[in-house]
Structure prediction request, 255 residues.
Amino acid sequence: MALLSVHNLSQSFGGLQALTDFNMEIGGYDLVGLIGPNGAGKTTVFNLVSGFYTPTRGAIVFNGKPTRGMKPHEVTALGLARTFQNIRLWNDLSVLDNIRIAQYHRLGYGFLDAVLRTARYARAEKNVDRKCRDILDMMDLTEFVEELPKNLPYGLQRRVELARALSTKPRLLLLDEPAAGLNALDVDGLIHLIRWIYNEFKISIWMIEHQMKVVMTLCQRLMVMDFGKTIADGAPGEIQNNPDVIAAYLGDGAV
Ligand SMILES: Nc1ncnc2c1ncn2[C@@H]1O[C@H](COP(=O)(O)OP(=O)(O)OP(=O)(O)O)[C@@H](O)[C@H]1O
Ligand SMILES: [Mg+2]
Prediction:
């Protein structure tokens, strides 16, 4: 059974049809890329799948459960985590606290426990703290735990966002343009890091990316969108030579 199954997903914003009948299945251990020109509808797909928007039409089944109408944190609790095209970190909280607040949906204590600081709460907090430090350590971020994200270079902020997503123990990780704003050296580091995450955590990764080197190097499968529709879906080698894809990127005059 597919880990994620999306059927005829469609989204309009007022008069704008941003997404039309998008279909897709992801298994338990896939690395898939989603590419396409600006405004094609890629981020919209991620916003729908992760519960940030409710689709105008269509069905999403993740981990055996229909998720249409669920809130983002409920989808996260089912095992889906994401990063954002524009980094979304709490800039006035430390790196460690940014990871900690992502855990609250997973803690087994309620409001009273937290207020009364029960033994259960204290135990849970200690546990969370250790797990957060473990993931930061794995991502080579230990020396920055007390820093504020806004004081870190862009590449490290992206890494903190990735650590936060991983800390929720996802089975599927959505990355929205992880290489955006990185220099060539950092892009190579990112490729290495994503491959490491894939091998180490044995999870599925679905990424939107404009930098061809990243998707061509990493992905087993590429989907291409243009004007809210899927125009190609296949192995990277096939996609590269697909005339529809070339036309979408370069304009019809190119073919
Ligand atoms: N919340 C929204 N309200 C209105 N229009 C939106 C909203 N979100 C996206 N759109 C529109 O939907 C279309 C698809 O946007 P989307 O952000 O999904 O594109 P994209 O493929 O991610 O592009 P990019 O590569 O530039 O990030 C665009 O025309 C965009 O302006
Ligand atoms: Mg986008």
